[in-house]
Amino acid sequence: MKERKAVIKLINPETGSGMELSIIIDERFTYPCIPEKLVEKLNLKKLTRSIIMLPTGEEIKAWLAEAIVEFRGRRATMYIRLSDEIDKPRAGYMTFEKLGFSREELIELLEGEGSTSS
């Protein structure tokens, strides 16, 4: 199975500060789920902390936060999950669909950039 990655930009909607982040596209995820330590400097406002179940069945504690997600010049404000109990940033296709990309269009863009690996 190919692992697809994309470089997105996360932006704090209150301060406008942002950073680029390489994220694994994992269709099992609904919200982008980011290791908290990777985005500490953005100082995102944490809304609530709860226990969530990952697609693997593992339960972790994660903060719900709001951020602007940008990819290929398109941006949208959306909820993200922050937790240091995950090792790599992940997001499902739904994240990119909220930005107006179809699953097929996204796969085509990423394969055109050579950003997939076995």
Please tell me the overall pLDDT: 90
Residue share in β-strands:
35-45%
Low-confidence stretches: none
Q: CATH superfamily assignment?
A: Acid Proteases
Largest sheet, in brief, is: 8 strands, mixed
CATH class: Mainly Beta
Q: Can you write the helix and strand succession as a string?
A: EEEEEEEHHE
Whole-number tally of structural domains: 1
Q: How many beta-strand runs?
A: 8
CATH topology group: Cathepsin D, subunit A, domain 1
Shape: globular
Q: Counting H and I runs of at least 4 residues, what is the number of helices?
A: 2
Indicate the CATH architecture: Beta Barrel
What is the first-to-last residue Cα distance? 6 Å
Round the Cα radius of gyration to an integer and report it. 14 Å
Going by helix content, strand content and strand pairing, the class is mainly beta
Query: Percent of residues in helical segments?
Result: 10-25%
What does this molecule look like?
The chain has 118 residues and is mainly beta. The protein has a single domain, classed as Beta Barrel (Cathepsin D, subunit A, domain 1). The chain has helices at 93-97, 103-113, and strands at residues 3-11, 18-25, 33-34, 46-53, 59-71, 74-82, 90-91, 116-117.
Short description:
The chain is mainly beta. 14% of the residues lie in helices and 45% in strands. The chain starts with a strand and ends with a strand.
